[in-house]
Write a structure and sequence with these properties.
2 copies of one chain form a homodimer. The first copy, chain A, is α/β, with parallel strands linked by helices and 268 residues long. Helix content of chain A is 37%, strand content 28%. Chain A has helices at 14-26, 38-47, 68-92, 140-148, 171-182, 212-222, 226-239, 255-260, and strands spanning 2-6, 31-35, 54-57, 62-64, 97-101, 108-113, 116-120, 123-127, 132-138, 152-156, 158-161, 166-168, 186-191, 209-210, 244-249, 265-267. In chain A, helix 2 (38-47) packs across helix 3 (68-92). The interface between A and B is large, with 40 and 40 residues.
């Protein structure tokens, strides 16, 4: 069982990701593909006259403010456009893909974070009406039923709150949560960097290997922005029984194969 | 087993439809909800700078020209926005809804119609690059597996061609095809008219009952535009073993309950 997370940002070669997923499925491997949606959501939000708004939390973390309108656009783009085009492409490659969001069958359930504590123009503010959250439960039965029946789940990073509201969730952590729930051998997280870097400005400073015991130290020392969530997700997944997490480059040829060969940052 | 088709056009009370579906599911009934997407696709296509284009076929039938860009917008709106918001609402009502498009797990498979023969300014033309089609196969196994596991499928009207291209399909005929494949007792088709009318301009001329033997005659005499496809779908479904089809009003309170009580045009 391999969980592949790909997409969200710009520059990923999704065609190459799909080809690799198809090759794994042909070899009899069970794969769950988790994708993102933030870049395309920005583009379409802009066109629809509801431009994305990014805010800085009191702890200095930059994130999207997901009001209800943004949530609905995100659902449309991630669970509609991106998810269905990936399913179409995988079907063309002979994979019986089935697209789901975390809402469907309560696949990904979690707690809504309805307010954000932010800093704007040097002042602290509370922003209400946020629709994001953190996944706490995965419907393992649904995924296993589909995998056993020969389907390859393709998952859009939305979740459902305990009050049944749609939530925007981080795709990397969704992949980690799914990996943990399924006790996957590997979780591969592909993005537009080669892995965790000692110096974010220099791709030659890749950290090739992190033992789990040192992962939190690396998180504090080297991880910034989105990389923090990837590493956090990795730590959670490994603690919950995933064999190995690889944070790797999604812009190259055969990105999944290379990650499985250990190219990237391997955490175990 | 009841198949409910609702939505697509304007004016339907989807909140009331969801409440009725939830009541049926609570009673232990298996339900599949099929929705549309044409009206919202028009609105969003317009905003995205790719306004819908309607063409008249040589046989006088008006339909949407679904070029690839329109198909992708349709997938986004129908399988993303509409489908996921319905799933969210049903989950809030206690229904374990799972949203799918016909692409997912090859749920609805059919033949692509890649060219349209149209009449424009009095001249006959062939329009290429069309992405629509007609459903020929339903993945019954997938629907049955989900229904037996307690999920309520919510289906967006896209299909997949034999060459694995995404297709825009008619929602009414998708509901009819699903009903036929599952040998449903009833297929309820809700729209913004009370049923088949003798005079389209007069809602009091509702035809309350049509025996299957007379359905084709009614099709030729009374059905226009979208109603033609509803009636065609009904005839196909009944021939394939559906017990009863009701074409009914979706703008009223308790629309599904009323249709089940026989309010509308009952065909059997």
């Amino acid at each position: 069982m391999i969980i592949v997370k790909a997409g969200g940002g710009e520059g990923l070669d999704m065609e190459a990701v799909c080809a690799d997923v198809a090759a794994l499925v042909r070899q009899g491997e069970q794969v769950v593909l988790v994708h993102g949606g933030s870049h395309e959501t920005n583009v379409i939000s802009e066109k629809l006259g509801h431009p994305p708004r990014f805010v800085t939390s009191v702890s200095g973390h930059v994130s999207r403010y997901t009001d209800r309108e943004t949530l609905e656009i995100f659902a449309m783009v991630a669970a509609g456009r991106i998810n269905k085009l990936l399913v179409e492409r995988l079907q063309q490659l002979g994979v019986n893909a089935i697209g789901l969001s975390g809402l469907d069958g309560r696949l990904l359930e979690g707690k809504r974070k309805s307010t954000l504590r932010i800093v704007e123009n040097g002042k602290r503010k509370v922003l209400r009406g946020e629709y994001s959250g953190r996944i706490e439960r995965v419907n393992v039965g649904l995924l296993q039923m589909l995998l056993e029946a020969g389907y390859t789940p393709v998952v859009a990073p939305l979740a459902i709150s305990y009050e049944s509201e749609a939530l925007n969730v981080d795709g990397d952590r969704a992949a980690a949560a799914i990996g943990a729930a399924l006790k996957a051998e590997q979780v591969i997280i592909l993005s537009n960097v080669p892995g965790l870097l000692r110096d974010v400005a220099d791709e030659s400073t890749l950290i090739p290997h992190i033992p789990l015991a040192q992962a939190e130290e690396c998180l504090d020392r080297y991880a910034q922005g989105r990389m923090k969530r990837k590493l956090l997700g990795a730590i959670e997944a490994l603690r919950d029984g995933v064999g190995q997490v690889v944070i790797a480059d999604g812009r190259v040829e055969e990105p999944v194969r290379r990650a499985l060969d250990g190219q990237g940052t391997v955490i175990r």
